[in-house]
Design goal:
Blueprint lengths: L1 E3 L6 E3 L10 E3 L6 E7 L2 E5 L2 H41 L1
Antiparallel strand pairs: 1-2, 3-4, 4-5
Amino acid sequence: MSAICPECDSAIDVDEMDVDIGDELTCLECGSLLRVASDSPLEFEVADEDDLDDDDEEDAEEEDDERAGEDDEDEDDDEEDEDDLVDEDE
């Protein structure tokens, strides 16, 4: 199946089973970053560079949140270990 690049009007061949709405690919003719806008019929839209920056920022925030959660768990474990030591001394 093929669709047209919205930037250079080149035909882009893809296997319709390999793409989903929102997937991104690069046009081999002009190098534009494209996003699948529709899968029936197959259509592409230009992926804005701003959208990519937003996605990167969201990913970084999620990783920071995950790390913060891991740090909290480590602190809780340390407190429990200290409590065990106090109990053993008595």
